[in-house]
Amino acid sequence: MGTSKKNNLSKSKTDMPVRDSVAEAIQFKKIQKRFPKQFEHIFPDKLAPRTVIIIPSLTMDEEILSKISGVNHYEERLLCMLMLLRMPRTNVIYITSETIDPIIVDYYLHLLPGITGYHAKSRLTLLSCHDSSHRPLIEKILERPRLVQRIKDFIPPDHEAHMSCFIVTEKERSLAVQLQIPIYGCDPDLYDLGSKSNGRKIFRECDLAVPPGFEDLHTEADIIDGLTKMKENNPALKKGVVKVNDGFSGDGNAIFSYSGSEKAKDLKVWIKENLQKNLKLVATDLPYTVFLEKYKSMGGIVEEFLEGDVKESPSVQCRITPTGQCEIISTHDQELGGESGQVYFGAHFPASVEYAVELGEMGLKVADALKQQGVLGRFAVDFISVKEKDGWKHSPIEINLRKGGTTHPFLMLQFLTGGIYKEEEGKYYTSQGHLVRYYFCSDNLKSEDYRGLSPHDLIDIAMVNNLHYDGTSQEGVMFHLIGALSQYGKLGVVCVGSTPQRAREYYAKIIAVLEKEC
Questions:
Q1: Which of 277, 304, 331 is the last residue before a domain boundary?
Q2: Which of 167, 184, 201 is the last residue of a domain?
């Protein structure tokens, strides 16, 4: 029996094209061509038998990701997709690096509307690589052929299946080809469209007010030239932003201060001499030399640091469906922090009523441009918005061609309330039609005092202090990143309220309760 299984595994492996080959890319495109039909016939039918394989891998630069506290637990952010189990003929297969505590899974299943925990558990398969290293999850999966075979075995023969990933790279593509199922996401051949450099080009094509700057840079000399030209073009400029093309959560960015350049006889010489001293890297403990290596290998941009007395950092989340429809899913006002003001901490949903509709219109322009290039799935456009005398000026700064920090909070709200964001109004309505909902979310609620709190402790604290989501009122609190709490003192939250103020009140209550309990 053991020999037979081994032969089956060997056969399936030899039938597959070579990893990262042209043949594999061609086969992936053939698989993806089947997806529009599945989308049209299976997705609208809540009773259709289907299996969704969730791959929450942060397949990005390992060195930059390693600077994020508790980064392995970010794989838990897509646990919101367990809400798919509310559809009684849908199976979910969820793969992680390490085993998720059962109490965390139970916490999510308890939120399911209209489905018992027993029924949901019978359709949920949790698989683990049992690997706590900082390498991306997808690498761990691909080097375990027996795990890949187990994923195949858990897909019922009468089910249509697809993969849902945090990001789609060549590695996720390899897994899709091995499983012979499509991905609801962008072909990795198009991934560079989301780079900082290509984002600037797309924004210009869409006639959007991209910040002054330069793209397609690679060397320290390029950075110096760009910073010099920006200052010469705008003598009042105080700061410049230097970004690698493929950063994450601001950790590929650096802020350059022109402070001290006023007395320089030769601006370019002064910038060259002061570049390392005046360049503040967002990623903690990332050496200047390593940042330059990343910049050289990935490429990057420099652009003006936009100033303003009243300044916001909104984003618009879009989706391009397999049938080519461009949709505005949500808008958010992001909260950025850290010394540089470049690190994502949380967000308010929806974005300010003063400009939410306008953001949606600009997002649709970008979505249409990306659709022409063949892009599929979710993406977000981030802006810097400065209030001027005659209104707001919105400058797009990057395209995130993947899921992001605002994806899972909105998915949770949508799954729980069955509602929709109406981009023509800039408001979210629940399934009841007349109820408007708001939320504040954060991936970065943390304190040294929280260290040592287990998932069991958190759930107990939440229940005793009435910190939970109430399906009757469609308000309340949901936690995520629960697994990061004990070791890193870090937690994620989504606070849903009937007004923005109520959402913030829930967040304040969480902090007060945790301070008291700790």
A1: 304
A2: 184
Instruction: Output the pLDDT for position 284.
Output: 72
Q: Which two tokens stand for residue 140?
A: 């761990």
Angle between helices 2-15 and 145-153 (to 10 degrees): 100
| Closest to 486 in 3D by CA, of 432, 449, 513, 436 | 449
What does the H/E/C string look like for 392-456? EEEEEEEEECCCCCCHHHHHHHHHHHCCEEECCCCEEECCCCCCECEEEEEEEEECHHHCCCCHH
Q: How many domains would you assign to the chain?
A: 3
Answer yes or no: do 180 and 238 share one domain.
Answer: no
* Range of the structural domain that residue 462 is part of: 437-518
**Long-range contacts of residues 237-240, Cβ cutoff 8 Å, at least 24 apart:** 237/304, 237/305, 238/305, 238/307, 239/304, 239/305, 239/307, 240/213, 240/302, 240/303, 240/304, 240/305
20: which 2 tokens? Answer: 């990262």
- 364, 331 Cβ separation under 8 angstroms: no
User: How confident is the model over 99-156, as pLDDT tens digits?
Assistant: 999 999 999 999 998 899 999 999 999 999 999 988 999 999 999 999 999 999 999 9
What is the DSSP code (8-state) at residue 183?
Answer: B
Same-domain pairing of 85 and 156: yes
Angle, alpha carbons 290-75-98 (nearest 5°): 100
Q: Quick one: 72 and 216 in the same domain?
A: no
The shares of helix, strand and coil residues in the chain, as percent rounded to the nearest 5, are 40, 25, 35
State how far the Cα of 385 lies from the Cα of 403, in Å rounded to an integer. Answer: 22
What does the CA dihedral 356, 357, 361, 367 come to, rounded to 10 degrees? 50
Tell me the C-alpha distance between 209 and 116, whole Å: 50
Contact 64, 251 (CB under 8 A): yes
95 vs 140: CA distance, rounded Å: 10
Q: What is the CATH number of the domain that holds 504?
A: 3.30.310
Measured between alpha carbons, how far is 197 from 217 in angstroms, rounded to an integer? 8
Residues, the chain: 518
Query: Which phi and psi (to 5°) does residue 28 adopt?
Result: -60, -45
Cβ atoms within 10 Å, residue 175: 21
- Tokens 């008291």 belong to which residue? 516
Tens digits of residue pLDDT in 465-474:
999 999 999 9
**Residue 18 gets which letter from DSSP?**
P
Helix (H) or strand (E) holding 461: helix 455-464
Which residues have CB under 8 Å from 126's CB, separation 6+? 94, 96, 99, 100, 105
Strand partners, 52: 92, 162
User: What does the alpha-carbon distance between residue 141 and residue 509 come to, in Å, rounded to a whole number?
Assistant: 40
Quick one: tokens of 285? 């403990």
Segment 246-252 mean pLDDT: 70
